[in-house]
Structure formats: C-alpha cells, structure tokens
Amino acid sequence: MKSSLIISVFLIGTLTVIASCKKPEEPKVNGKKDYTLLQDDLARSMKKASLVMRRLSRSVKNNDWVEIDMWTQELKEGIGFSCVTQYMIENNDISLRFIMLSNQFNSSINKLMLASRNHYSERADLEFKNLVYSCDACHDSFNKDAEGKLNFDDTGDEGQN
Fold it and tell me: Could you give all domains of the chain from N- to C-terminal order, each with its CATH number?
C-alpha cells in the first residue's frame, strides 16, 4: 500500500512537471512586421554595422590608428559587401542613386583608411564625417522605417536626433 502511494505521487508529480513545461502561445502583437529571412539578415548586418560605426567614432576621436584600421576594414566588409549585396538581392529595381551612394560610402571608407595609415587626424575626422553623411544620405533615400538621422556617438542611439 505504501509503495503504491509513493508510485502514485511520483506519477502525478511527473505528469505535472511535463504538463507545466509546455511553451505557452506567444500573443500576436499588432503592427509587428513579418520579415523574410533575407530581411532578417540585412537587419542583423545593419545592427552590427551600427555597433562598428560607434566603435569607429570612438577610435577616430581618440586617434587610435590601429582600431581605426580594424573597424574600417570590418565596416567595409559589413556594409560595403554584405549589406549592399543583401539590399540589392532583396530589391529587384536598384536605382542609380543607390549605386552612387554606395560608391560614396566606399570612397569615404577608403579615404578614412588612407588617412589612418598616414596618421592624419584632421583628415580622418573629415573622412569620418563624410562616411556618416553617406550613411545618412542612403538611409534617407532607402530606409523608409528610419526615424531621424543616425547617431554613432558612444552615447547616441541609432535613429535618434
């Protein structure tokens, strides 16, 4: 009798634990966009690029030439290749303006890399400003969901003025 009571309690406890482990349904939020896999990749790439831009901003401010070189390389690969390519795949109709802004971005990043290698702090500041301008211009033209100018300061939040 005692053993059957223990077995019953054990079975009831096990079934309770199993039943409580069910994942509840997540409520559907109105206004939430459904993104394609490619759009998710683009969003992740842009988020990473935003983080790299903040780090680059700090490096330019501190004239840390090694970090400037490292972050510009990562940014060139991240936005220059990954994000631009993903955007072009996602959108069938690529405008001439997008191509021009992409070239402006690449030109700014190359000039920033050159200024960094030669340790020209004033030129690095100028080219970083040109780089941010190219990001703003592209987002103004092609990112309809963006709110305000991009802010890549250490304390700034992306999309806030």
Answer: 35-161 (1.20.120.290)
Q: Is the pTM of this model over 0.70?
A: no
Query: Using the 8-state DSSP alphabet, how is residue 26 labeled?
Result: P
Residue 159: both structure tokens together: 């999309």
The more confidently predicted of residues 59 and 149 is 59
What backbone torsions phi and psi does residue 21 show, to the nearest 5 degrees?
A: -85, -5
Distances (CA, A) of 123 to 29, 51, 71, 82, 116: 47, 22, 17, 27, 8
Q: Cα angle at 140 between 76 and 67, to 5 degrees? A: 25
Cβ count near 79 (within 10 Å):
26
Tens of pLDDT along 112-159? Answer: 999 999 999 999 999 999 999 988 888 787 665 555 555 666 554 544
